[in-house]
Amino acid sequence: MCSTVFIYLYRPAGLKNIGNTCYLNSILQCLFSILPIRKAVMSYGDGATWNEGAQLGRRDGGRLLTKDEIGVALKFVELLKRLFEALISQRVEGWAAKKVRKSSGGHPLASNSAAVPPAVAPDRELADMLLLRVNGSGPSNATSTYAPAPGSQQQQQQQDVDECMAQCVGLLVHALPPASLMDSSDQTGDLSGPDDTWIFQLLAGKLELTTERTGPSQDGDSEKPLNEAFLNLNLNIPDETADINDCIDAFFAPSAVAATNDGSSSQAGPSADAMDIVDSSQLVRRSRLRDAPPVLCIQVQRVQFDMATMRAFKVNSHLRLHERISLTPYRHFDGAAAAHSRRHELQQRLKAVNEHLRMLQVPVQTAANTSDGAPVSVVSALERVQAFMTGVHRWADLDAAQPLLADLPESTAALTQQAAAVSSQVSEMAAALSQARERWEHERTQARSELDAIYADVPDDDMAYTLHAVFIHSGQTPEFGHYWVYIRDYDREKNLVRWLKFNDSNVSVVDASEIFRDAPRPGEESANPYYLMFVRSEDLDATADLGV
């Protein structure tokens, strides 16, 4: 028993930060934990999985890849294999060393430092390859000249996990043999459309989109459905109290889209192609999940653009996560209808109540009569006014105040006599709003509790997903900050689950409450989920494995 517990407590190796690469380290650890990707990368050189001969024929967006582009992709896989070998070697050597210590009589937990193998340094060429590609400054057919000049903007700029993940997937696809050399059912490596390579079968899903024209003589007229592949779902956070299920619901909710005479749309969505031929009218866009991938990636849209300041900003709203979710409702165009009507009602009620509570917040005014961005409760503000007016009334009754009041204009002095009445009216208003706030907060708690109970009912079918990885971005702005990733580790023999935090060189075991919390820790409001990875529950054993 002691040996089993000890092996389970063993932690894998971290990755050294070699210069603004925290985002890359998080992605590399996550890719390593996806078993089909790790096995394929480790098979590089066998001539069966990858295009080691650099034969032409694979396409990207309808364009044939050049010999140099294929060479870059193959180099990426080679470097990735070298990194994975180093991670595996550190884990095996660490486990073997501890086994020797235990067999010689030493307690397995006697040395904590031995429980964590030394961190591995990613190859500089591997990092620079992705750095330049994400920045978009490197030629697409570059070979190995990726390194930016020391101190350059490329080295200092904060990178984005979503972009880097897309680059990794793109390079892996580019390194595959052309369709003519693979199974006849395999298609081209077109990243902009459906693809039947094993990588896309693992990571890519398909949406079915449709639009309905509304208005005079347009009642119920629908466009032909459009199928669109995706590598990740881009989810907005609908409100301050939202959880991951609310975000998915909002993504698949029907939405009104205004189209112009030239066919362009005023609202960005998964695709605008289905609306290109629509004239000036209002459209209702609907979407459903046609095919769900074994590994579902979700990008939380925290970077928004402020049209007033013309600057990007980060949305630091807390996002509650759940270990398991169900995508079953989204197989249909209106997942909130029929059997899901109660869920939709609760969401609408939560939206209304949250708006009521939001309206009870007012900005604090500074001496310059400008808001400092820190809103306070209207009830609290009224209570302060009531206390002030009560103080004014009491002051006016003091004998020492009479000479001063006698020197004031009559209209001003009369105001002090009205202070008591004003104080009473303000107090009544504050009490009424306070009662309304308590009622709305109670309604929100009840609706949230019922909605959580609905979300928690996850059927054991092929649309049930388990959270596998959570990428965290810590920082007030999208330009700067720090990334780390939590990855779920499962001991199949003992049916034990633990969460590991990969923070560059540091790898630690954390309590699940650090991921599944209802509110951020005080002082850590800017550290929040930025990118998520779910694995289909029935595929967990074959898909997710940290190799510990």
Q: Any overview of this molecule?
A:
This protein is an alpha+beta fold. Helix content is 37%, strand content 21%. The protein contains 15 helices and 19 strands. The protein has helices at 2-9, 22-33, 35-42, 67-103, 124-135, 153-156, 161-174, 198-203, 244-252, 341-359, 378-396, 402-407, 410-417, 419-456, 540-543, and strands at 59-60, 63-64, 205-214, 221-222, 226-230, 233-235, 255-259, 281-291, 295-300, 303-306, 311-314, 324-326, 361-365, 371-377, 464-474, 482-491, 496-503, 506-510, 527-536. Strands 6, 9, 12, 15, 16, 17, 18 and 19 form an eight-stranded mixed beta sheet that branches. Strands 3, 4, 5, 7 and 8 form a five-stranded antiparallel beta sheet that branches. Strand 1 and strand 2 form a beta hairpin. It is elongated, with a radius of gyration of 29 Å.
State the helicity in percent bands: 25-40%
Percentage of β-strand residues: 15-25%
The overall strand count is 19
Q: In this structure, how is the largest beta sheet organized?
A: 8 strands, mixed
Shape label? elongated
Q: What ranges have pLDDT less than 50 throughout 5 or more consecutive residues?
A: 1-8, 99-114, 134-158, 182-194, 263-280, 366-372
Structural class computed from helices and strand pairing: alpha+beta
Rg (CA only): 29 Å
Please, what is the average pLDDT?
Answer: 77
* Terminal residue distance: 17 Å
Q: Key features?
A:
elongated; 548 residues; alpha+beta; 15 helices; 19 strands
